[in-house]
Specification:
Length: about 120
């Protein structure tokens, strides 16, 4: 999960590409570069009108209320514990501590693509 130790100061969420099995978060930095965070097989996504909003921090939580709810639901649905034991809560926070994104995912399913230059 070291890949999420990103320098996201002066960056905002540019776009979200959501499909049934994959989530792509495109981050636009003020120096006109972009990065892409690919999340395969995410378990749960909460999006709070995040497009265009500045990112203050990204937290990787191993304990949270949302994470516990998700694990409890998966257990009640008779999922194999191996499917949910390693889940984490990725929390994208904007300024004034406003939530932008909450994602429940297995950290082994997260990939950060290289920063790419955008055209001006």
């Amino acid at each position: 999960m070291e890949a999420l130790n990103l320098q996201l100061d002066e960056a905002c969420i540019s776009s979200l590409h959501i499909s049934q099995e994959q989530l792509e978060i495109v981050i636009q930095r003020w120096d006109q570069t972009r990065m892409s965070i690919m999340i395969a097989h995410y378990t749960r996504l909460y999006e709070y009108n995040s497009l265009g909003r500045e990112i203050n921090t990204v937290n990787v939580l191993r304990e949270s209320e949302l994470l516990e709810i998700e694990k409890r639901e998966l257990k009640e649905m008779d999922h194999d514990p191996e499917e949910y034991v390693n889940l984490v809560h990725l929390q994208f926070i904007g300024f004034s501590e406003l939530p932008l994104l909450d994602i429940i995912v297995d950290p082994s399913r997260v990939k950060v693509d290289q920063i790419m230059q955008t055209r001006i």
